[in-house]
Amino acid sequence: QRQACQLTLRQKPASWHGAWRNETTAAYKEVNILDHPAYWKALSDFCLPFSKGKRMADIGCADGKLSTFLHAACCLNVDPCPPDDAEHVIKMDGVAYLQTLENNSLDLVTVVMALHHMDRAALEHELARVLKPDGRAIYVSVSPSSNMFGDHSFNAMFFDNWTVRDAQCGLDDHPSQEVICERSITHDQLSAFVTNRAWSNLAVMPQDKIDSMVSVIPNDICRISICLHFRQFCPPQC
Fold first, then answer.
1. What is the pLDDT of residues 65-77, one digit of tens each?
2. SS3 of residue 49 by DSSP
3. CB 149 within 8 A of CB 223
4. Which of 43, 139, 176, 181 lies at 20 to 30 Å from 69 by C-alpha?
5. What SS3 class is residue 92?
6. Contact 160, 212 (CB under 8 A)
7. What does the pLDDT look like over 103-147, one tens digit per residue?
8. What is the side-by-side strand order in the sheet with 74-78?
């Protein structure tokens, strides 16, 4: 169950201001292709050994759904642009929120499909302070090598400039683990995801590219395959 929780805050106010985009908030909630049991199982299988019974924060949490799977003693859900009906979500940039926390106050911080909205160096500067000595952060992102439904032209358009974007936010190192997530899907579901621009890469695409991607989705499509990259950050030991 989701539960509200609080940690002792520092007297020092937040000074960081992230560059988040909110135009995808509604579509991300309604037609996100990752909102599927196979995806939530992949995330929970990886995170549960570090989250169960612990104090954690989920940065860029959207509606906070991930916290319902992780059995944490306390999970702080943080997102600057959550859906209107989200409950127990702190409406704030993730780095800025971490700046308000005391040292050594968290066992785990998850950043799922959100690091590209932040600066990794600024994030890890705060993580090194707020994580306990044996704590960690887990970053999850989609790999541009994802097969999707196996169409080269669709993938070339969908993942255009993906690697450049990842490098700009600091996601240019090798992941610690890759997990292939396969899910059932229909033509209408994948088309709605693209046409409603549910992810930030779609939000900035010209309409002709959106139309081209939709045109190559097979009418009889039944599955897609997405490669998830997991990375971990542990605070440096003195």
1. 999 999 999 999 9
2. helix
3. yes
4. 176
5. coil
6. no
7. 999 999 999 999 988 889 999 999 999 999 999 999 999 999 999
8. 89-90, 74-78, 55-59, 106-112, 131-142, 223-233, 177-184
